[in-house]
Amino acid sequence: MRKLIAGMKVSVDGKIEGPEGYADWVQGWSEDYGLTPKVDACLLGAGMYPGYEQYWTAIQNEPDKLLLMTGKLPTLEEVKWARFAAQTPHYVLSSTLTSARWPKTSFVRGFEDIAALKRQPGKDIYLVGGARTTASLIDAGLVDELRLIVYPLIAGDGKALFATTARRRELELRKVQQLQDGRVNLIYGTG
Fold it and tell me: Which of 15, 44, 90, 140 has the smallest number of Cβ neighbours within 10 A?
């Protein structure tokens, strides 16, 4: 069975966004979890998908231009992810969305659809986010692995990754790796 692997960038206090509504401490939104060779599909929530589609489409179309959303040039890693994302099927968990600009986008309506997707042959599935979707899929027992890149700062006010988690959940630490600039890569099994 395919694994569903969530990857998120968080502050030490577990925030994925600061009080301004975005993670201004993240320098680039590339796939930094080592998942690209392991996955052949991505899953997102309906709230995150429109901005995700807009961001990566802008990089696909003009990889050498400043991004309107950040005011920065895309990093080399972001350009690589944009190319990968353009070729990779994306599934959006939504009860209301019915159309997307990306041709390889499909919609799943509930947890049973995600369980069925995991039973299909193929590589693992990257759960890109957002926070509510990640928390609800962990609560439903559908996430097999959680990969966090923890930034060395306390964000204070902002959106917590697990703010909507319904119950306590034990995790199994599988790997710890120190990264540049004081960041830490943590890999947990959600078993």
Answer: 140
CATH number of 4-121+131-189: 3.40.430.10
What are the boundaries of each domain within the chain? Answer: 4-121+131-189
CA–CA distance, 56 with 54 (Å, rounded to integer): 6
Contact status, residue 127 vs residue 137, Cβ threshold 8 Å: yes
Report the C-alpha gap between 118 and 86 in whole angstroms. 21
Using DSSP, how many helices (H) and how many strands (E) does the chain show?
Answer: 4, 10
Angle at which helices 49-61 and 76-87 cross, to 10°: 110
Query: What would the pLDDT profile of 60-89 be if each residue is shown by its tens digit?
Result: 999 999 998 888 899 999 999 999 999 999
* Residue 152: partners with Cβ closer than 8 Å, 6 or more residues away: 12, 181, 182, 183, 184
Rounded Cα gap, residues 62 and 56, in angstroms = 10
Q: H helices of the chain, where?
A: 49-61, 76-87, 111-119, 131-139
Q: What is the pTM of this model?
A: 0.94
Where does residue 110 rank: exposed (0-12), middle (13-18), buried (19+ CB within 10 A)? exposed
At 154, is the secondary structure helix, strand, or coil?
coil
Nearest C-alpha neighbor of 8 from the set 58, 56, 48, 57: 48
